Amino acid sequence: MPTATVHLLRHGEVHNPDRVLYGRLPEFHLSELGRAMADRVADHFAARRAAGARIVHLAASPLTRAQETAAPTAAALDLEIVTEPRIIEAANHFEGLSDIKSRLREPKHWPYLLNPLRPSWGEPYAEQVARVMAAVREHRDAAVEIGGRGAEAILVAHQLPIWVTRRAAENKPLWHDPRHRECTLASVTSLDFEGERLVAVRYTEPCADLLANAANTPGA
């Protein structure tokens, strides 16, 4: 059994009919389907606890969609939601805009496209990994303090910070094609630790059957 596990849970679908890259903007709430995803994830973690998992700690990004995704799990497991700003969505130059592909033809945006490896249009990947992993370690230790060896924590966050953290954990380059991220809505990326050492990365999709009808704005 690992010393501890931290589950990085992506939020559910957001009500976003204009397909805005909403980033860190406030008041983007879960859609009806997103609420169903949040309920499904709560059932997923409740089943894990019923099977013996010691899930003892829950934190979420301060953004509305993350807090709303965390709420059913908090109720199902009788846990308080700790707000964790370090797992917030990445900053992005294109935040608040829709139809991003057409925007790329506008010269005023070209300076932000010079270095896709960093990336130049937003928060550097390495900085995202650093802040998320700092939060992961702190909440991992909090879970172990509460639940002892084998304790588990859930952190509700966002696609890009989760994805680059996983790539770092797997010793892969942080640059990537956003269309090929394996981090679907309401998916769970689990990091297993033995003490300070990360020993395994696992990925599950509790809402796989709900994804066909979901909107999924890249980078959101």
Automatic annotation (TrEMBL):
GO MF annotation, one: hydrolase activity
EC number(s) per entry: 3.1.3.-
Keywords per UniProt: Hydrolase
Protein's UniProt name: Histidine phosphatase family protein
Signal peptide span: none
Species of origin: Arthrobacter halodurans
Source species, domain of life: Bacteria
